[in-house]
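Hi everyone,

Forwarding the result from last night's run.
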Amino acid sequence: MGFLQSLNNLIVLDESNAMQNKDIVPISVKRRRWKYFGYISYWGINSLCAVTWSAGSSLLSIGLNGSQTMGIVIVANLLISAAAILNSMYGSEYHIGYSVFQRVVFGIRGSIFGILIRVLLSVVWFASQAWLGGLCVNVVLCSWSKAYLNMENTFPDSVKMTSQELCGFVIYLVITIPFLMIPPEFYDYFLAVGSTAIFFVGMGITIWAVKDNNNSYGTLMNVAVTLSSSEKGWAWMYGINSWYSSLVAGISNQSDYSRFNTKPRHSYIGTIVGTNLTGFIVPLFGIICCSAMLEKYGQEFWMPNDICMFWLQQNYSAKARAGAFFCGLGLVFSQLSINCVGNGISGGMDLAATFPRYINIKRGAMIVLILSWPTQPWLFYNSSSTFITVMSSFSVFITPLVAIYM
C-alpha cells in the first residue's frame, strides 16, 4: 500500500526512460477530468455498438426466447459491473493503469506476459471492429451514390472480400487516425457524442421495424422454449459466460480509464449505470428488430448496417437514402468511439508500458492500427475461419489475471 501511495505522489517527468514516460506514471491532477457521464458513456459505447446489437442472436441460437435472453443480459451485466468496479479500484484510488499494476503484482519482467496478451487482443479486436466500421462507412457512401451501391466486384473468388468492402475498410482506417491523436483524458466528450448518436440510431431503426410490421414486434420475444429444465439451466450458464467474455477486455483495462476520474465515486457509479442501463437497451433493440423483420420479410437481420443496406436495395428513394445516411453516420461514429477507446488507445497504453523510452500512447495506438491490416479481419466474417473463436477464448487467461488484481 505504501508503494502505491508513493507512486501516486510521483512528479510527472517529461523525460522518458526504460521504466517510465509521462503516459504511464500516475496521472497528474490536471489530467483527472472524467466525471459520472464520462464513465456512463464509456460503458455505454461498449454496449451501443454493432457487435452488442447482434449479440442476442448467439443466445437465441441455443434455444432460448427473447425474454430469457434479456434475463441473461441483466444477470451478466450485474456481474460485469461488479467485476469492473473491483478491478478499477487501483486506477480510481492511485491513478495507475493496467500495465503499471502488472508490475506491482508480477514484477517488472513478469508483467510482460499480461501486457502482451492484452496487446494481442487489442490488435485483433481493433481489426475486427475496423472491418465492421468499414461496412458502416459503405452505408453512408451507398446512400450518396447508386453506382457505389451496385459497384462491381473485381476480385476473384479466392479473395474473401469485395471491392466495395475494401474501399470502406481503407476509408475507415484513414478517418480513424486523427481520433487516435486525442489525449485519453478528453475522450469523455467523444464517448458522450458517440453514445448519444448510436442510441437514437438504434431507437429509430427499432421504431421503423415495429411500425413496418404493422406495429408488431414479432414472436421471438415469447416463442415457446422446448428445452428441459436442465438444458435451460446450462443454456443460462453458457449465455452468462458468453456475455461476460464479450466484455472481458473492457473489464481488464477499466483502470486505464478509471485513473482519469475526478473522484473515485464518479468511476464506480458511472460504471454501474452505464453497464446495466445501456447494456440492456441495445440487445433489446437488436432482438425486437430481428423479430419484426423476420415476421415481415422472412429474413433475419442481426446487424444494423445490414438493415440500412436493405432499405437502399429495396427502394433507392430519397427517404431511404436519408435514413441510411444518418443511421450510417451514427454507426460510423460509434465504431470509431468503441474502437479507439476499447482497442486503439488501450493497446497504445500497453505498448507505452512495454517500450516507454520509444513509444507513447499515440505511437502505440498507430502501431495497433497498422497491424490491423496483416490481421486480415475480412477472414473473420467472410470465411469459415475459426481465428476469432480462438481469440474469444482468451478470456480464460484474462479472467484469472483480473481475479488476481482484485
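The mean pLDDT is 83.

Cheers,
N.
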